[in-house]
Design a protein that fits this description.
Elements: H1 13-44, H2 47-53, H3 57-85, H4 92-113, H5 118-135, E1 145-150, H6 177-187, E2 191-194, H7 197-207, E3 211-216, H8 218-228, E4 233-237, H9 252-262
Parallel strand pairs: 1-2, 1-3, 3-4
Amino acid sequence: MAESVVIKNSVDPEEAKVPQKRIFISLLLVTCVAFAGLAFLLWWIPYVGLANIHPKLPLALAVVFSGIVLFVLGGALTLVFTIIRGKNLFFNRRIRGVVIRILFPLLVVIGKCFGVSSTKIRRSFVAINNRLVLAEARKVRPEKLLLLLPHCLQNHECTVRITGDITNCKACGKCKIKDLVALSKEYRFPIAVATGGTLARKIVGEKRSEVIIGVACERDLTSGIQDSYPIPVFGILNHRPFGPCYDTDVDLRLVRKAMSIFLDCDVSDA
């Protein structure tokens, strides 16, 4: 399997992946400790009353809570080892679902309590999701791979409408749309531009893809990953030299690297 690729604006993927993963893993461990503490309190507070009902009830409740805590810790450790090793351990797809649907919203709340910004947590989530997607990665036919792009990649002065059909691009070279369309034609995989989450969900439903490579900001990638599950989405953060949603850019090298992971063909650099 190809080496894991984790994306960060203007930084080499291998340099970016460690701090991004640490944010997610640290918040996960804090959550586990908090959960264990909550379980202890739920057992300890009614301890006296339970003992009055039956002397063995506190012990029974302790066993139940201990089992729940061990189950949560076991799941967390499995997730951490999967992230670190980059290999599919046990039920990796289910782990990805737990991360997407349960852990991420919970870690956003925990992160706010410790002053960690939502943007950093989202970026870490995208990096962790990429790691899990790569852990279960497999080659697909080109028509089953979708490259989904944000509308802000298009130059703001361009009057050509590409949201309905990206091949309408006139290839003027003022933005990377020209190069991405050329990649799509060369390797024969679908490519589309979305102006928002609603259109993105519509495109994903119509294409029936098995793998999605998504280019967007942290917020849109996070929501796209959640909306597209169980379809694996490999996220690439766009560059925003002029701020969000305005003449953004994307590293074509990272797009090609992602393509080479999922397509059964040689995707060499231009």
